[in-house]
Amino acid sequence: MDTLLLSILDEAAQEARPLISHYKVGAVGLGGSGAVYIGCNLEMPGNALNQSVHGEQFLLANLLLHQERVLQSLAISAAPCGHCRQFCSELACADRVRFVFGYRGHDEPEVFSLAQLLPARFGPLDLLEDPSAPLLLEQQQHSLAWTADAQEVLQQRGNDQGFQRAAEAALQAARASYSPYTHCPSGVAFVTSSGGVAAGGYIESAAHNPGLPPLQAAVVGGIVGGCLPSYDQILEVVLVEVQAAPVQHARITTAVAASFSEDVRVTVLHVTRQ
Predict the structure, then answer these.
(1) Which of 12, 96, 161, 180 could pair covalently with 26 via S-S, beta carbons 3.0-4.6 A apart?
(2) Catalytic: 56?
(3) From CA 60, how far away is CA 172, in angstroms rounded?
(4) What is the pTM of this model?
(5) Which residue among the candidates 11, 15, 43, 56 is catalytic per the annotation?
(6) Which residues cross the membrane (predicted)?
(7) What is the DSSP letter of 231?
(8) Helices (H), 118-175
(9) In this predicted model, what pLDDT tens digit does every residue of 135-181 receive, in sequence order?
(10) Average pLDDT of the chain?
(11) From CA 236, how far away is CA 32, in angstroms rounded?
(12) DSSP code, position 35
């Protein structure tokens, strides 16, 4: 199986969009179901580099989209950066994941554990108030309901089917998002010029910085779903987040979306916890 995963790396890297560095990264993972998933790096021109998506982050977001609960193996062409090692620490199965490296010129792949790649790491159990809380890839279910203002917007645009689909998809993404540290669930969905809708949920990290914003998670969904050949195909972005939450994504989502197209529309719909 390791050889198979490594053989797909070049194909995975061809999906990358490194529009700033021009350096393509591919990642391939084996899910608990036995299905194989890909990841690649994405960069957002006109934005800070911390708005990029690393290949391993893409892969884990892809697993979430397909409701995989376990990552068995992760194949990459070289050692993962510290950012991705920390991000992988969020996995409930982190200690069981096999990291497979296929160095050029080596006859046999090398296999490592996360403990070997990131010894004495800072992780979820160092920060969580409830050590039994579900971790990344485990089922999350935030009970959220539209505010009165959001319901009014939804009613006003009742005949806009694309918007209605995006709003519902963003709500479901927020309900399934991973925010155990701030308790600020959020989700994004967008509508493309072809009528496609893709969504993704916020993913936090105990170290905070290697998290994945909901817009980028939705972009992963669009690429995986085949409805986002380029960023400028996005017509409207719908962000769902908790009203007056300590962590909010409205400003940065609006800024990044504006870099995709001057005409992109961003709609923020607030929810409350039930």
Answers:
(1) 12
(2) yes
(3) 18
(4) 0.96
(5) 56
(6) none
(7) G
(8) 124-127, 148-156, 161-175
(9) 999 999 999 999 999 999 999 999 999 999 999 999 999 999 999 99
(10) 95
(11) 34
(12) -
